[in-house]
Amino acid sequence: MIKVVVMDIDGCLTPGEVEEIDLGVLKKLREYNQRSKDDPLIPAITFCTGRPQPYLEAMHQMLSGYLPAIYESGEGCIFLRAITSGLTPK
Would you write out the chain's pLDDT as a tens digit for each of its 90 residues? Predict the structure, then answer.
C-alpha cells in the first residue's frame, strides 16, 4: 500500500518552470491530502523540489501539507506544522 507520494513541483504539479499552475489540480490534491489524515487508504502528499524554501513553504501551505518537505534538491527540509505551531522537530 502506498502511504506517501513525494513529488516535485515543476514538471509534476505544474507543466514546467514558469508555467501556470492548474488551480483545479491543486485543489484536488489539497482535498486528497486533507482526507489522507483520516483515511489510511489515501496516501499523504509532500514535495521534494529544487526550489528555495520560501517557494516550497507557500506551495506546501496551499497543498495543506503536514509531512516534512525537501527544498533546494536536498539542502534543507521543512516541518511546516512545527513551524506554524512554534515547535521544532527532533
Answer: 899 999 999 888 888 877 888 999 999 999 999 999 999 999 999 999 999 999 999 999 999 999 999 999 888 998 876 555 444 444
The domain tally of the chain equals 1
By DSSP bridging, strand 76-78 and strand 69-71 are: antiparallel
Is 17 a domain residue? yes
Rounded CA gap, 24 and 38, in Å? Answer: 22
Residue 65's domain comprises 4-74
Predicted structure pTM score? 0.81
Residue 14 — φ and ψ, nearest 5°? -115, 160
The verdict on residue 83 lying in a domain is no
Say if 42 falls within a structural domain. yes
DSSP 24-66: HHHHHHHHHHHHHTT-TTS-EEEEB-SS-HHHHHHHHHHTT--
